[in-house]
Amino acid sequence: MKNELAVSSFFPFWEKMEQRHRDLIENRTNRLELSPGRIIGGDDKSCLGLLLVISGRLKAFILSNQGREVSLYRLFERDICLFTASCTMNNMNFEIQFEVEKKTSVYQIPPDVVEEIQSESVEMAQYVVNLMTSRFSEVMWTIEQILFKSLDARLAAALIEQQAIDESDELIITHDMLAKQMGSAREVVTRTLNYLKSEGLVEIGRGKIKILDYNALYDIANRD
Amino acid sequence: MKNELAVSSFFPFWEKMEQRHRDLIENRTNRLELSPGRIIGGDDKSCLGLLLVISGRLKAFILSNQGREVSLYRLFERDICLFTASCTMNNMNFEIQFEVEKKTSVYQIPPDVVEEIQSESVEMAQYVVNLMTSRFSEVMWTIEQILFKSLDARLAAALIEQQAIDESDELIITHDMLAKQMGSAREVVTRTLNYLKSEGLVEIGRGKIKILDYNALYDIANRD
Asked: Region B64-75: what's the mean pLDDT?
């Protein structure tokens, strides 16, 4: 049997928690298997509560009324998905959706359990503050990229990120996926990719892009 | 003497707080008068703690390395400025700055006091979660405007917001200020303003804009 993350390992203050809170989490937590392509949030208005990612990958994104999508951040193993517990948050009037990008296993702590513990445990409430600050930071980073960075820097950053995710220089990705990643339009991505290709930094194939000069891309991505 | 907001009125759970926390706040809170034009954050790296706005107006914004500014939200009387206490937050790696837009009086609760109470009081920790959710919501709203709305809708929304702030149809505002407000460039604002003018919705003067048809602007701003 594979050695798997325990629910307790997601909470650094587990030992400090009251026994009844630990019991509540252990008795009420479900395990869910999420299939690739599934969208959480949006039309599916159910509030799942906290999702603790055991393995797999989720992408957080926002969607315009016209269906334009912008990726905000990704959640990997050991991350906690906070905004699936949005029903437990006062004052929250925005909607982040999640796409299951590959087969994902999560622990699901239902919203009423989250609410109860958060209203009684200062450690849990603090932990939520920290989680929210992390997500806020990730969103701000993305926004600053979109608002302030030149197109080639954003595209280079998106390619580098994809390289890290795929752990390969041969990226299986479409121009449309890159556009969502960058918060831009497909045509703009194609144009900018052609520029990077003309500089000898990438090779463009059907549904894939090969990175030829990682260091040069890295420099472009991190240019002011 | 003018009847002024008390520190306690900023905390809906004041009565539930422990006496020593109330004492700590009352003994350690300062009152600051902030002059228009002052920038808080940025080069001035001091961490002021929580600022409770008694009167006046602060504008939250981000700044690119090239000096491009994008307004995120505004804080008015009774609002709490959370991100001036960023040194108390783990995981926070973005920088929001504040501009004092008009003479502003605040209560300042120093960061060590914030940290101490937040680590002991579940009500305070919860309150910070709520504050952060509110700010997150405001930032997401702004971002969605910038990413998803057409230029004329964004400009109409900025004019309507300014009308509410000034409480007048005669807005004292430059194209540059509107550009920051919209997260766009001055030239783009000028072009879009000329379009609204050609439609008979606004009149453009030097350093001012007069709203001629509020309802039409409102419709444009709220169009999908």
From this structure: 86
**With helix as H, strand as E and coil as C, how does A9-53 read?**
HHCCCHHHCCHHHHHHHHHHCEEEEECCCCEEECCECCCCCEEEE
- The secondary structure of residue B41, as a DSSP letter, is B
Q: Which residues of A touch B183 (CB under 8 A)?
A: 147
A218 has a pLDDT exceeding 70 = yes
Helices vs strands, H then E, count in chain B:
7, 9
The shortest C-alpha distance from B2 to chain A (Å) reads 31
Contact between A159 and A202 under an 8 Å Cβ cutoff? The reply is yes
Distance CA B141, CA B134 (A): 11
> Phi-psi category of A9—alpha, beta or left, where left has phi over 0 and alpha has psi -120 to 50?
alpha
The mean predicted confidence, pLDDT, of chain A is 90
CA-closest candidate to residue A135, choices B121, B53, B101, B132:
B132
| B128 touches B28 (CB < 8 A) | no
pTM of the model: 0.81
Tokens encoding B61: 């914004």
Give CA–CA dist B161/B154, Å, rounded: 10
Q: Which residues of A123-165 form beta strands (DSSP E)?
A: none
Phi, psi of A68 (to 5 degrees): -80, 135
Smallest CA–CA distance, residue A1 to chain B, in Å, is 35
- pLDDT above 70 covers a percentage of chain A that reads 97
- The tokens describing A141, both together, are 């980073």
Residues of B in contact with A125 (CB under 8 A): 122, 125-126, 128-129
- Which residues of A fall within a CB distance of 8 Å from B92? 133, 136-137
Residue A86's nearest CA partner among A99, A78, A95, A73 is: A95
User: What's the mean pLDDT in B61-83?
Assistant: 90
Model pLDDT, residue B1 = 47
Using pLDDT thresholds of 50, 70 and 90, give the confidence band for residue B2: low
Interface touch B140/A66, C-beta < 8 Å: no
A130, pLDDT greater than 50: yes
Q: Cβ(A32)–Cβ(A105) under 8 Å?
A: yes
Smallest CA-to-CA distance from A52 within A97, A86, A88, A84 is with A84
Q: How confident is the model at residue B182 (pLDDT cuts 50, 70, 90)?
A: confident
List Cα–Cα distances, B15 to A102, A115, A118, B12, B25, in angstroms: 49, 22, 20, 8, 13
